[in-house]
Amino acid sequence: MSHILLRHREIPDIADLKVYRKNGGLEAFKNAVTSMTPTQVIDVVKNSGLRGRGGAGFPTGMKWSFIDNKNWPHYVVADADESEPGTFKDREIMEGNPFQFLEGLAIASYAVGANVAYVYLRGEFWQLGALLDEKIAELEKDGFLGDKLFGGEYSLRIYTHLGAGAYICGEETALLESLEGKRGQPRVRPPFPPSVGLFGKPTIINNVETFTNVPMILANGADWYKSMGTADSAGVKIFSLSGRVRKPGNYELPFGTTFRELIYTHGGGVQDSRAVKAIMPAGASSSLIIVDDDKVLDTPMDYATVRTLKSELGSASVIIIDDSVSMDWLVNKTVHFFRHESCGKCTPCREGTYWMSNIIERIHHGQGTTGDVDLLLNVAKQIQGKCLCALGEFSTMAVVSGIERFPQDFQNAVSPSPLPPVYVKEREMGKA
């Protein structure tokens, strides 16, 4: 199957504007502005079944249709704050196929009546920001951005903005706060960004991968896109595969591809030929899937089916854990991350991640008790459903699923007898 998003793997130099245009690039945007109404563009995207690729999986066309047309101006923001542990797809798109991403952003801007769009990048992507600035300047020079495009009345400018490396700014309202020059902390919702967003005006926010699908959908039609994937999850997805696999990397595959195919056909199998113990399908923020039979590995990867395994596909940052890994080690790592990244605005997340971190630290280092395991689970469940944004909720996913689905690992961690020094060292390395 030919790539739709990672086209640079098949078309050399597609990051060059001349090459991109030679391969049909920017025709979809030009056709949209000159031959389609904004409503028609939204309808095509809505009918394609495209869902947001940032994690939530919300229908893209529906989100665009929520824009408040009684309040102007409108804005569109690309969320390029790729900070989820295990996710690295957006970076490859922006490096290898930047014009397709920018064209999708431009089409979205036209569809919702925005004359200004922003690309919000994580602070560590400063080189990418410079690259995108160059590509934006090329589009302006060739008349694809600027005033009165294609001889009509529509005008569009695109700007890049660097954050400061905060995971929380992947949350859309924290991103908006940061873009406005404020501390990156989530807003109370409602109102939602399509009504009150950037600078208090209606704003559409989508992930980089989401925008990159749009030019191909407009060029080939909604039915073409729906012919791939599943009824629940149309089209293709970039699966960022990492963990204990031989060939980690980005794999663009249709929704409905099984975990087994991803791991063994594309990922080359598990290191040292060990068994798969668990899967984190959405990076550090996902519940652990216990791999206790072949049916799990043969599960199709789409939004609805992964939920049957009591987890979420999210951004499809698939982390593979083999049977050499003790789950208290993994939980310790994930909780430490979320404690560090909590913005501190709401008490359940600020205090909850602090206490989870303290408890799992002593469990992992062989100083905990059975009561500590129960306490850790209790603290995690007390956090759930009480936070201002999803970060607090995410911090509990590995904790709750790890304790409930891998109880033996935690029982071993709180052995009443002193642990041999070698075992302690192995546990610190995640090998016991």
Largest beta sheet, briefly?
A: 5 strands, mixed
Q: Which spans of ≥5 residues are poorly predicted at pLDDT below 50?
A: 417-423
The CATH superfamily of the largest domain is known as: NADH-ubiquinone oxidoreductase 51kDa subunit
Given helix and strand content, the structural type is alpha/beta
First-last Cα distance: 40 Å
The average pLDDT is: 94
**Physical arrangement of strands within the biggest beta sheet:** 6-5-9-7-8
What percentage of amino acids are in beta strands? Answer: 5-15%
CATH topology of the largest domain: Rossmann fold
CATH architecture descriptor of the largest domain: 3-Layer(aba) Sandwich
What are the secondary-structure elements, in order, as H or E?
HHHHEHHEHEHEHHEEHEEHHEHHHHHH
Number of strands: 9
Backbone shape: globular
Please bin the fraction of helical residues.
Answer: 40-55%
CATH hierarchy, class of the largest domain: Alpha Beta
Number of helical stretches of at least 4 residues? 19
How many domain regions? 3
Whole-angstrom Rg: 23 Å
